[in-house]
Structure formats: structure tokens, C-alpha cells
Amino acid sequence: MASPAPPTAGPQALALLPSLTDELLEEIFLRLPTPADVARASAACPSFRRIITGRSFLRRLRAIQPPPLLGFAAYEGFHPAQPPHPSAPLARAFADAADFSYSFVPSGRWLTPWHPRDVRQGRVLLECTPECDPAFEYYDTVLLRDLDLAVCDPLSRRYSLLPRIPKNLRGQHKHLIGFGLFLAPTGEDDEETTFRVVCVACNKTMVVVFEFTSITGEWHIPAYLSCNSLGTVMTDTRYSSSCHDNEQSRFYWIVPWRSKLLVL
């Protein structure tokens, strides 16, 4: 008499197997000793890369291992970390694979090249403005209407050209000069392709915040302040508050020659 056939797994059990496998692989990848080992695992096969580049895995990995220092992006290009820094091999491989000349981004309206203004979460905020006389660099002003912006990923070579700040928004406040441009950090629940760009502009009496979000594809004004309420007067140069930094979702600007610190 033939033995009975082994029970067949139901559809729900079969559907559960791939997710269990992914969960086990995720736990293994989280236990790799260095970010370089994680990067090598990601390059091993498409299924590994899918798990490692997922938002859930990256969120857990960043809680355990802070991102390695690969280098910094400057006007003249990317400067990778050098030996004996432990990230030097990974930084060199990253520099070779990425395009920090931004040649894949279409030209702006002006003859000047794209220059980085901020780097965050693997993206670079690029600026293209009319050429100025280098002898008068610190007296240069850039009107918002002359500002071309783009956001790109030098590794994947994906990019987004931002629309110019609309005239109806610029016209609400006269003679504005762009002095703060940065990428706002995205939240853990945001889509991977989502980004926000903030431009803080000023004249002698007002500080105005413009924000662009990739979700709507539009600029808006979330806030503006009177300089009188801040107890200061801004100067007519784009460097009137050019030094900024981000800490715990707040942005800080140093106002040169005024002994002031602005917080957004």
C-alpha cells in the first residue's frame, strides 16, 4: 500500500516563505561588522541589494552603525577620504563610481557650471547663477529670479530640475537676495524619492522662507519674519547670512558683522 502523499503547504504559507527569508537575511546583514561589508553584500546580487537598500533596513542599520565618512563635495569636485582613514577604500570606490562633475545634469540658463550648495542623504543640491566678477565676490548679489536649482544623486545619476521661484511669490517681498540654500532632511516615513529644498532670502527689512517639495512640485512660503522682530538689519549681499548648519531638525545661520544667530 502506497504511503500517503506529504501535505502540501497552503498558499498563505508559501507566500510567507519569501518574507521570512528576507527577514533572516536582514538580521544577517545587520550583524556584518563594517559598512564596507554591507556594501559588498549589496553588490553580490540583486535580491541582497533590494533588502539592503530598503528603508526599513537602512533605518535599522543607521541606528547601529552611523554612515561612514566618504569625503566632501566642494566647488571643484569630490574629495574622498584618504588613508589611513578606515573609509578610504570605500570612499575611493564611491568617487570612481559617482559623477561629481554633474555632467549628467542638463545645463542651466547661464554659462556657468553647476555648483554644490548642500549635500544630504545621498543627494546634492546644485546651483547655477550668472557669472560674477571674482574681484567682487563678497559683494555679489544673486536675485531669486536668476537662481537655477537642481537636486541630483551623483551615484545613480538621477536628477530633478527645480522650477524657478514663481514671480507671484517673489513679488510679495521686494528686492530679495538668496542667502541660504539647503536640503531639508526627510523623515523616516517619507518615500525614498521625496526631497525638500529650502531657500531663505532677505532684504533690509524681511527674512522670507521659500520651500519646494517634490511631492507637489511647487514652491510656497511657509514663514516670513520682520528683521525688526529679530533685532537686526540685514546687509545687501548674499553672504549676509551664508554660514548655516542643521541640528535636530533646526537650521542655524550666523549673521556676519552683527553678532547674531538666526534659528529656523
From TrEMBL:
SUPFAM superfamilies: F-box domain (SSF81383). It comes from Setaria viridis (Green bristlegrass). This is F-box domain-containing protein. It comes from the Eukaryota. Pfam families: F-box. InterPro entries: F-box-like_dom_sf, F-box_dom. Residues 20-61 form the F-box domain.
